[in-house]
């Protein structure tokens, strides 16, 4: 399919100016879901970017407020805007749809409640064009790569490098944050792209990828990073209080692959068995002395299957406990 770029762009202020066709096209993706209160604020900040060779993709994820009419209204005022519509399926699917429809050399992502600095896109493109994203970074931080993510490459001891791997031996994709003491103190969510451990030297080389861009990131050059792994908040449950049930409901004295972990809590004068998350890549084992940190129950069952509530009284010891036992 042949894509022909327009020879001019219509700005939000109604003026038409020729586009600099030597500037790479940037596709700005904005997932939209019930964002009416702040959506116009976000769109106006994008339209006022000083970098004008833009393709703006507003992707409505099945909103049931007036978000879609707002998107359509702005699309009528600026031909750089394209509105995509889809049934509600979440922000990841929404972004994937936009990525498939984008024509830009670079992708930039904004949330519907963001306000972009007028120079944000221009600065990102300048950094991207100045660098060679496909080359190893050799310890640099703040390098822009495709999709406006950036990578940090560093060295650490082999022992520390092992902490960047999950139970399956693959790099961690969750529960990872990165900050730069003295330069950027606020930790940013990230993922581990690569870990190479050299047993002979006792060193590990790692690559951290982050998709959050801000002014502090843009100012980084070479910097020492602090990688935060497995920072977890939750309930402190005595390890001795954790039980493992077999599929037939009988209790095992040790943990097994298909056994259900949980604790007994007081429910009036009864003992009730409440499940907790099994140890896996999404729920790594986190301990604090003689306690295990577990997630409390949540309405979002994709995050946790835990049934333990914040105010539950956990039974630490007892004989012949079972669900429904009279205490």
Describe, in short, the structure shown.
The protein is an alpha+beta fold. Helices cover 17% and strands 33% of the residues. It contains six helices and 20 strands.
Describe the structure.
The protein is about 15% helix and about 35% strand. It contains six helices and 20 strands. The longest helix has 12 residues. It starts with 7 loop residues before the first strand and ends with a strand. The N terminus is likely disordered.
Task: Describe the secondary structure blueprint for this structure.
Elements: E1 8-10, E2 16-18, E3 26-32, H1 36-47, E4 54-61, H2 67-77, E5 81-86, H3 91-101, E6 106-109, H4 120-130, E7 143-145, E8 149-157, H5 158-162, E9 176-180, E10 184-198, E11 203-210, H6 215-219, E12 226-229, E13 235-238, E14 242-245, E15 251-252, E16 260-267, E17 270-275, E18 287-288, E19 291-294, E20 325-326
Parallel strand pairs: 3-4, 3-6, 4-5
Antiparallel strand pairs: 1-2, 7-8, 8-11, 9-10, 9-12, 10-11, 13-19, 14-15, 14-16, 16-17, 17-20, 18-19
Helix pairs in contact: 1-2
